[in-house]
Amino acid sequence: MSVRSKGRSSGGAATRGRRRQLGGAAAAAVLASTLAACGGDSGAANALTWYINPDSGGQAEIAARCSEASGGAYTIETAQLPRESSAQREQLVRRLAANDASIDLISLDPPYIPEFAEAGFLAPVPEDVAERVTEGVVPSAVEGSTWDGEIVAVPFWANTQLLWYKQSVAEAAGLDMTQPVTWDQLVQAAQEQDTQLAAQGIRAEALTVWLNALIESAGGSVITETAEDPENIELGLAEDPGTRAAEVMNLVGTSGVVGPAFSTAGEDANVQAFEDGEASFMVNWPFVYGRALSAVEAGTLDQSVVDDYGWTIYPRVNPDDPSAPPYGGINLGVGAFSAAPELAYEAAECIVSDENQAYYFVTNGNPASSAAVYDDPEVLEVFPMAPEIRQSLEQAAPRPQTVYYSEVSGALQRSYHPASSVTPGVTGEQAAELIRAVLAGEQLL
Questions:
Q1: pLDDT digits (tens, 9 = 90+) for 159-208
Q2: Which among 145, 185, 380, 426 has most CB atoms closer than 10 A?
C-alpha cells in the first residue's frame, strides 16, 4: 500500500497520540478535559454507539444490518451529529477531550482526521484490520485515512466532483467531451455560447475545495511539508502551481461567465442554475444526478433536461497534466476511550463491506471507497456515471492534511474570496503570510 508523502508530519509515528496545543475550538476543547465525561453507561456491554452525520437513513439501516449479522456479538445504536461539518467536529472534539467513553464509532470528515489522530482521540487501527479495510480501496480514500504514514481510520464512502455539462451546448461549442478539457476551454465555450460556468465561489469550505483541486491539478499542494512547530509549516501557495491556480480562479471570476451571485454560490445554488438552464457547465458532486431524477419524478423538472446531462472528469488546469479532483466523503474512526474498541473495529469492517457500500451508494447517493462496488450492476443502473466517479477518485487529492486544518482552511477562504479579487503572484503570498500569522497566534481569523 502506498500513500503520498506530501503534507506528512515530520514528527513521525512516535508523535501519535500526543496531546498537542491544537488551534481554535480544539484548544478550547482540550481545556474541557477537566469536565466530567459526557458518556456514561450506554446499556448492554456489547452495545456500540455510532455517531453519524445526517443522511437519508442509510447509516441507521447499515447499523441494523450489522447488528443482526453479528449474531448478538454487538448491537449498534446511532446518534446523529449536527448537519454542518464544522459543528460535527466541534461537538466531537469537546466530548473526546472529556474522555467520553460513549463514543465507539465516528463518521468523520477526512480533513479532520489528522487533528483527531494527533490529539489521541482515535483508537489505533490493528494492523490486520488496516490491511483488510484498505484492500481494493481507491487511493484518495486510503490517503484520506492516513496520518504520519499510518492508517488511523477506516475508509467508508468517498466523494468527488465531476464536470457536468449540457451535451447540446458542448456540441455547439465544438468541445470533444470524450477528451480532457481545461478550465480555459470551458470559459471560452461559455462565452461563445452565452451561458454560465458554475463553480463554488462562496466564502465557505467549498471555496477551499475548489482552490485545493486547482493547486493539486497544477502539480502542487497547499501544504508541501508540515512540521512539529506550526510556524515552520512549508506552504506551496506562492509556488508556480499556486500561481497557476490563482490565474484560473481569477479567470473564472472575471470572465463574465459566472452568475451575478457567484461570490455566494455554493453547491446547491450551482445545481439550481444548471437545472434552470442558466449554466451549461458545472463542477459538482454526484448528488446532482439523484436530485435531478427526484425532480423529474416529482414533476418539477422535465425529463428532457436530464436527457441532456453529460458528465466527465474534473477540468484540467494545464492541458498536459491530469486533473486532481476534489476528494470528500466519510471515514470511520473508533473512539480512543471506547470500552470495546475490538468490537467497534469488527463493526466497522461490517459497515464498510462491499455489500453495504453498494447499498449506501444506491439508496443515499454516496459513492463507495471500494473500487469493486463500481462494477455492481445495480450501482451502474442507478448511476451510469459510476465509471467516471471511480476514475475521479483514482485521481483525486485530499485537502491539506494537517492538525491545523480549520485554521488553514479559514485563512484560505479569507484570502481567496471573492475569486474576482485573486491576483496571481500576490494572493498566494498574502495567504501564506496570514496562515503563518494565525498559526503563530499573531492574528485571528
A1: 999 999 999 999 999 999 999 999 999 999 999 999 999 999 999 999 99
A2: 145
What local confidence, expressed as pLDDT, does residue 43 receive?
Answer: 54
Pseudo-torsion of CA 225, 116, 443, 253, nearest 10°? 70
Residue 445: all three cell numbers together: 481569523
Give the domain ranges of the chain. 13-159+328-395, 162-324+404-439
Residue with cell 477518485: 393
Length of the chain: 445
* DSSP category for residue 78: E
**Mean pLDDT for back-to-back runs of 10 residues, the chain (445 residues):** 37 37 39 36 77 97 98 98 94 97 97 97 98 98 97 98 98 98 98 98 98 98 87 93 98 97 97 98 97 97 98 98 98 98 98 98 97 98 97 98 95 98 98 95 91
Name which of 326, 385, 353 is nearest 177 in CA terms: 385
- C-alpha–C-alpha distance, residues 163 and 12, integer Å: 38
Count of Cβ atoms closer than 10 Å to residue 414 Cβ: 16
C-alpha cell at 74: 454487538
Q: What residues contact residue 274 under an 8 Å CB cut-off, 6+ apart?
A: 164, 198, 280, 282, 284, 288
**Separation CA 136–CA 27 (nearest Å):** 37
What is the structure's pLDDT at 45?
75
Closest C-alpha to 179, from 296, 76, 390, 320: 320
Closest among 153, 140, 215 to 393, alpha carbons compared = 140
**φ, ψ for residue 140, nearest 5 deg:** -65, -35
C-alpha cell at 211: 482552490
Do the domains 13-159+328-395 and 162-324+404-439 sit in the same CATH topology, yes or no?
yes
CA 252 – CA 264 distance, rounded (Å): 14
107-166 confidence digits (pLDDT tens): 999 999 999 999 999 999 999 999 999 999 999 999 999 999 999 999 999 999 999 999
Characterise 174 by phi-psi region: left (phi > 0), alpha (psi -120 to 50), beta (else): left
CA angle (391 as vertex; 389, 395 as ends), nearest 5: 110
Homologous superfamily (CATH) for 13-159+328-395: Periplasmic binding protein-like II (3.40.190.10)
Q: What is the dihedral of CA 296, 261, 163, 58, to 10 degrees?
A: -50
CATH 3.40.190.10 at 162-324+404-439, yes or no: yes
Please give the Cα distance from 89 to 91 (Å, whole number). Answer: 6
Set of cell numbers at residue 278 = 442558466
